[in-house]
Amino acid sequence: VSSVGVFDSGVGGLTVVRALLEQVPNESILYLGDTARVPYGNKSAATVTRYAENAARFLLGRGVKMLLIACNTASAYAVDALGASVAVPVLGAVEPGARAAVRASTTGRIGVLGTLGTVRSGAYLRAIDRAAAELGRSVRIAARPSPLLVPLVEEGWLEGEVPELAARRYLDELHAEAPDLDVLVLGCTHYPLLRPLLQRLADERWGRPVTLVDSAATMVAETDELLGARGLRAAPGAIGELRCALTDEARVDEVGERFLGRTLGAIERVDL
Ligand code: DGL
Hints:
Elements: E1 4-8, H1 14-23, E2 29-33, H2 45-61, E3 66-69, H3 72-85, E4 90-91, H4 94-104, E5 109-114, H5 116-121, H6 123-134, E6 140-145, H7 149-154, H8 161-177, E7 183-187, H9 195-206, E8 211-214, H10 215-229, E9 242-246, H11 252-260, E10 267-269
Parallel strand pairs: 1-2, 1-3, 2-9, 3-4, 5-6, 5-7, 7-8, 9-10
Helix pairs in contact: 1-10, 2-3, 4-6, 4-10, 8-9
Bound molecules: D-glutamic acid.
D-glutamic acid binds near residues 38 and 71.
């Protein structure tokens, strides 16, 4: 049975796997985490694109029926190149998140937090503009890199003084630029784990409820639609299996579980 291939720079993409297991439990998943080379967030476009191509080659070699780029940074830099060069459908994290953000906003003012690479690439700006044009809406976007949030989440520091200070600083910067936003995109695999903290601080900072959008749920809904449209869905009664391949396994038990919400099971160590 052919699997859905999912890849990320590390274990963060397991937030997408978690949503897949919940929403399309009959699909089998082959997850590849490039844990030996994480983080991608601070690396150049050329490096991230090369890494994404390595990951795609590995998953295609295993016969996956579609590629899900669960990493925002890799999606931001490489989704177009991969989509144009491989024979299976490719879905990144940025487009689904952008569409969800436009649908959720009433003021048309949208904020984005992501890694340095994601923000620098301008991918969310372009994708949100495109989604707004499709939906006949007018939007304005403010994007800020918030790189310190990634290591905090990996350490499991999801609440308390240190993550609060870091998050406040990033939100303050965003607020200065966009005091009227009503939607904030969590444009990084790690940020959904900080959702309770970010929700509280954002509501406080903007003085009204801010809608937080993370791409995992929308990505999974779009995956299901795409599989359906191409006739690639698993048989309705099938029981999906999860297999994980990683380029390094240090700390995987501890950190991986934090993202997946359960143990990862057997892990294969691979070189790309
Ligand atoms: N997976 C990355 C992302 O979503 C975050 C971690 C990294 O920098 O590699 O942008």
